[in-house]
Amino acid sequence: MTTVILKPHKEESLKRYHPWVFSGAIARVVLDAKHKGDAPEEGELVCVRSAANEVLGVGHWQVGSIAVRILAFGAEELPKDFWAERIHAAYQVREAIGLIRPDNDTYRLVHGEGDWLPGLIVDVYADTAVVQAHSVGMHGCRKELAEALLHEIPQVKNVYYKSDDTLPFKAPIDGEKTGWLIRDDETSSSRDFEEYWSTENGLSFRIDWLRGQKTGFFVDQRENRALVERYAKGKEVLNMFCYTGGFSLYALRGGSKTVDSVDVSQKAIDLVNINVARNFPKATNHTAVAADAFEYLTKQKAEGKTYDLIILDPPAFAKHRDAVKNALRGYQRINAKAIEMIRPGGILFTFSCSQAVDKEAFRLAVFSAAAQVGRKVRILHQLHQPQDHPINIYHPEGEYLKGLVLYVE
Ligand code: SAH
To answer: Contact, 40 vs 2, CB < 8 A?
Structure first.
C-alpha cells in the first residue's frame, strides 16, 4: 500500500482523532510498487505514518488541500470487517436514541465525519437505504458498503446509490454514479417508485429518491416538525418551502385550523398532495400551491392575508463562503416578508441550512428583518439538526442546520 509520511509534529492532530490530513502536513509519499504514475490515485487507500514511522491510520487519498480522509485510526490497513463494524456502530447509535421503532423507520444512518465515515451519507427509508458518496474513495467502496448495509441493518433489503450530484466534479469516476446496488426481488423489483413509503413519527411519506432532492427527503427536520405539531392547534399555518410537506403533516396532526403549503416546484406540490391524502384522507383544510416564495408573500400581503404560524425553510442561500453576504440579505428579505404577515401573538419558525452562515449571523439577519418591518420579536427556541446527524468535534462543518422559533408581537 502507498504510504504517506508526515512532517515532524504533524501527527498530533491525528492522535486526537482529527479525521483529515492536509497536503501541507505531508513530507513525502512512498508509492506502492504497482504504481505507474508519480502520485497516488484519487480514492486510493493509503497508510499514514509519522516522521518517526509510527502508524497513524489508513484512509482515502484525495486531490486537493485535504489529502487524506482517515477511515481507521492506528491501523496499517482497513480491518477485515471494517464496513460491517462501522455500519453496526452507526445503527447502535440510532437504536440508543430511540429512532428505530414501528412508527419510525426514517432516519440518517451515516452522517459523514460525524459517524467516522468521511465523505459518506446514508439515509434509511423503511426497507431501502439511499447512499451518497462525496469522495472518490467512498465511491470505490460502494459495493462493500451495500453488502454491510444489507447484513447489519435488519430492515434493509434494498440499497440505492445516488451520487451524481455529490461526487467531485472533475474526478475520474469508474462505474455508475447512480442506480440500485442491491435490489431485493420480492420487495422491490415489482414495485414502482409510487410505492416507496416511509414512516416518520407515525406519519407516512412517499420517498422519491430518484427524482427528489438530496436522498429524497429532508430527514433533518424531524424534531423541528414535531415542535410545530405542539404549537399548531387552532392555528392558520403557512408552510413556505414545503418540499414534500413534512411540516404540513405535523401541523395537520397537531390540529391546525388550516395549512397552506407553498413550494416553487410543481413536483414537490404533487407529492405534498399525495402525502396529505394518504395521512388525512378527509382533510379539507389543506391547500398546496406551486409558487415562488417572494411572489406568493407579496401577493398574499396585498390581499390582506395573515397567518398565526409561518414556517420558512428555504434552500441553502449560501453554498460557499463568498456568497454569505448575499445570503444574509436574502434571509433578511424573506423573513421580513413573513414577519409582516404574522398576526400579533403569532409564531415564526425560521431556518437556515447554509453551513457557511453561522448562528449569530443568521440571528442578526432575522432580527434585522423584524426591525425593518417594525415588529417586536423574542426567541422561544433555538433549533438544530437532530441526533442522527452527529457532529464530529474536529469537523464543525458537519453542523449546518439552524433555526429560530420567534414569538411575534
Ligand atoms: N421544509 C422542507 C424542505 C425544504 S427544501 C421539508 O421539511 O422537507 C427547500 C425547498 O424550497 C425545495 O423544495 C425547493 O423546491 C423550494 N424552493 C426553492 N426556491 C424557492 C422559491 N423561490 N420559492 C419557493 N420555493 C422554493
So the answer is: yes
Mutate which of 201, 206, 240, 241 for ligand 1? The one with the most ligand atoms within 8 Å of its CB, which is 241
CB-CB contact of 218 with 246 (8 Å): yes
Ligand 1: residue of 203, 227, 263 to mutate (most ligand atoms within 8 A of CB) is 263
Cβ of 313 less than 6 Å from ligand 1: yes
Distance in angstroms (rounded) separating the CA atoms of residues 89 and 109 = 10
Q: Name, in order, each residue with C-beta under 8 angstroms of 122's C-beta and a sequence gap of 6 or more.
A: 90, 108, 109, 110, 129, 130, 131, 132, 145, 149
CB of residue 124 inside a 6 A radius of ligand 1: no
Question: Which residues pair with residue 162 across a beta bridge?
Answer: 178
Confidence of residue 206 (pLDDT cuts 50, 70, 90): very high
Let me know if 242 is a catalytic residue: no
- pLDDT tens column, 221-275: 999 999 999 999 999 999 999 999 999 999 999 999 999 999 999 999 999 999 9
